[in-house]
Amino acid sequence: MTNTTTDRERVGDPAQRATEEAAERLTTAPAESDGPTGIGVVGWLRWMWRQLTSMRVALILLFLLSLAAIPGSLIPQNGQNQFKVETWKAQHTTVAPIYEKLQLFDVYSSVWFSAIYILLFVSLAGCIVPRTWQFVGVLRSRPPAAPRNLTRMPVYAAWRTDADAAAVNAAAHRLLRGRRFRAHLDGGAVAAEKGYLREVGNLVFHLSLFALLGGFAWASLASGTGGKLLVEGEGYSNTITQLDDFTGTRFYGTEDLDPFYVKLNRFTSKFQNKGSQIGSARQFTANVDYYEGSDPAKLKQGKIEVNHPLEIGGSKFFLIGHGYAPKITVHNAAGDIVYTGATPFLPQDGNLTSTGVIKVSDYGDKDGKRTQLGLSGFFLPTAPAAFDRNTGPRSLFPGDADPVLVLNAYAGDLGTDSGLPQNIYQLNTKNLTQLQQDGQPAKVRMKPGEVWELPDGYGSVTFEGYKHWASFNVSHRPGNAIALAGAVLAIAGLIGSLFIQRRRIWVRAVALPGGGTQVELAGLGRSESAKIAEELAALAVDLQDDAPALDDEPESEPENEPASDDESEPDDEPDDESENGSAEADEASAPAESAVPADQNSKE
C-alpha cells in the first residue's frame, strides 16, 4: 500500500520525477527488469568459446598439464614397470586403493589428464586458425602509408638537398628493398616494413605445441610397452606368451607386437672402487644378438646401454635394470637332480643386496609323501666377514668382489599345483615348514662351489656360481618423433618471436617552394629496441649518395633593413622565414595522424 502511494506522488510531481530520473542515469547499478534477463544459449556458447580460446586460458591449461604430469614422474606407472607398481602397492597398502581410484598409476591415460590436454588442444586450435588468416591478410596488404606528421615518430631525421624529390623517393625505395624491407612508393613517400618473421615465430611456436600435443595423443592411443627379464645366455621371441608383462592401448594390442628375437649374450657392469664416489655406477652394457621377423639367418649383434636403446623394427629395446642370478643345483633324497638353473634375485639397495626364492615343485617323495621344496635367501655380491644382527645380511659393494649366498630351506606344499597365479619372487610359507638343524632354523652361508647337505635327509643344494641378468622395456611409441620435432620447433619459434623485432620506416621527399627538397625519415618499432634507430641512421647515410645534404647557409638580412640603426622602421610584412616558422608551428600544433596499422586488428 505504501509503494502504491509513493508511485502516485512521483507521477504527480514532475520536479521530483526529473530528479529521480537524473539520479538513475548517474548510477552504475544494473537496471531492474520484470522480464527475464540473459544473453541466451548462443550468447553463453559464444562467451565460453572466447574464454577457451583466449591466451589466458591456454596458459592456465598448459600450467595444469605440467602439474598433472608430476604424479606420473613420482609414482610408478603401469605402462612403464608393472613390477614396481605391484611393489609400491605392497608397501603402501593404505593409500594404494585411493591411488587406484584416482588413476594415479595410469596418469597419462587417465580421464582427467586426457581432459586437460584435449581442452588445450581445442584452445590452441581456436587461437591458431584465426591468427593465421589474420597474418596472411597482413602479408597480402601493403605497408601502412606514411603519417602526415613524421616528427612525432620515436625516431626521426631530416635534411635539405638539391636532388629531385621523385629521385630521392625512388632511391629510398631501392635502398629499403635492398635491405629486405617490404617497401611501397605512393603519394610522394615510401612506406616500408620488416620483421614479419616475429609473427611467424609466434605461429610456429603455437603450431609446435599443437604438434606436441598431437604426437602425445597419438602415442597414447597407438603405443604399447612390455617388460622382459633375461639372464645371460637366454633369449625370447617378442610374443605375448614370452613377455613378463604387457600394456597396450586402444589401437595397439597383443596382435600388433613387432616380430623379432633377442638373446642376451653378456652383461657388463662397472663401479667406482675408490674415492668419495665408491660404489657409483660407471658402465652398464648389454651385448645381444637379434633378428627381425622369423628368419634366424638375419642375425645381428647389438649393444644396449642406459639411455641408448636398440631399435628393432618399430620398437625400442631399453635397458632399465640389472642384478645377479645365482645358479643352484638341487638333489633330492634319492640323489636325483630335481632343479638346476640360474634364478634372478632382485636388488634391495644400492649395493645390490638381492633377495630371491627357488621353488622346487618336482622334488618328489620323502618318507612316502609327495613334497615340495622352497629356498629363500640373499645374494651378496661383496659380503662382510660377519653379519650385523640388527640389519641382517648386507652387501658392502655392488660389484662381485666376494659373492656369498645365504639360504633358508622349507618343505611342504608350495601351492603351485592349485592353478592360481603366484609371484615367482615371493615364497608363500602358509603350507610350508622350515627345516630345522641342531634345534635352529636351517640356514647356510655359501660361496661358489660349496654344497649344503639339507637336514633330515632332504638331499643337497650346490651353489654352482652366478650370472648377470638384465631387465628390458620394449616400447612401441609411434608419436615420439612428432613430439620431439614439435618441441624443437617450439624452441626455434620462441627464439624467433623474442629476438626478431618488427619495425616500420617511412621516407618522404617534398619539393620546397623556394627551391630544393626536404627529406624526412622516421621509424617506429613494435617494441623498444635500438635496432630501428641504427637502421634509420644507416639508411640516412646511404641516402646521402643520392640526396646530399646542403651546408648550413648564413641567415640573410631583411629586405627593408634601414641604412642605420637609428632610422630603423618596423616591417609591415613578416619575412619568409617567419612565415615558414608559423606554418611549421601550426602543423606541429595540429593533431597528427597516427601510424596506420598493417591491418585493422593489429595492436600497434
TrEMBL record:
<feature type="transmembrane region" description="Helical">
    <location>
        <begin position="481"/>
        <end position="500"/>
    </location>
</feature>
<keyword id="KW-0472">Membrane</keyword>
<protein>
    <submittedName>
        <fullName>Cytochrome c biogenesis protein ResB</fullName>
    </submittedName>
</protein>
<feature type="domain" description="ResB-like">
    <location>
        <begin position="55"/>
        <end position="536"/>
    </location>
</feature>
<feature type="compositionally biased region" description="Basic and acidic residues">
    <location>
        <begin position="1"/>
        <end position="24"/>
    </location>
</feature>
<feature type="compositionally biased region" description="Acidic residues">
    <location>
        <begin position="544"/>
        <end position="587"/>
    </location>
</feature>
<feature type="region of interest" description="Disordered">
    <location>
        <begin position="544"/>
        <end position="604"/>
    </location>
</feature>
<dbReference type="InterPro" id="IPR007816">
    <property type="entry name" value="ResB-like_domain"/>
</dbReference>
<feature type="transmembrane region" description="Helical">
    <location>
        <begin position="57"/>
        <end position="75"/>
    </location>
</feature>
<keyword id="KW-0201">Cytochrome c-type biogenesis</keyword>
<keyword id="KW-0812">Transmembrane</keyword>
<feature type="transmembrane region" description="Helical">
    <location>
        <begin position="111"/>
        <end position="133"/>
    </location>
</feature>
<dbReference type="Pfam" id="PF05140">
    <property type="entry name" value="ResB"/>
</dbReference>
<feature type="region of interest" description="Disordered">
    <location>
        <begin position="1"/>
        <end position="33"/>
    </location>
</feature>
<keyword id="KW-1133">Transmembrane helix</keyword>
<feature type="compositionally biased region" description="Low complexity">
    <location>
        <begin position="588"/>
        <end position="604"/>
    </location>
</feature>
<feature type="transmembrane region" description="Helical">
    <location>
        <begin position="203"/>
        <end position="221"/>
    </location>
</feature>
<dbReference type="InterPro" id="IPR023494">
    <property type="entry name" value="Cyt_c_bgen_Ccs1/CcsB/ResB"/>
</dbReference>
